[in-house]
Amino acid sequence: MKHSLLLAILATGLALAASAQGKEPVLQPGKPLLAQIEQIEKQLGDGETYSELSGADRSRVRETLSRLRGVSEQYANGVGMPESVQTQVFNDQEVVNMLLTQAREDSRLICRREKAIGSNRTTTQCSTVAERARQREAADRDLARAQRGGHTANN
Question: Could you tell me the pTM of the whole model?
Answer without folding.
Answer: 0.61
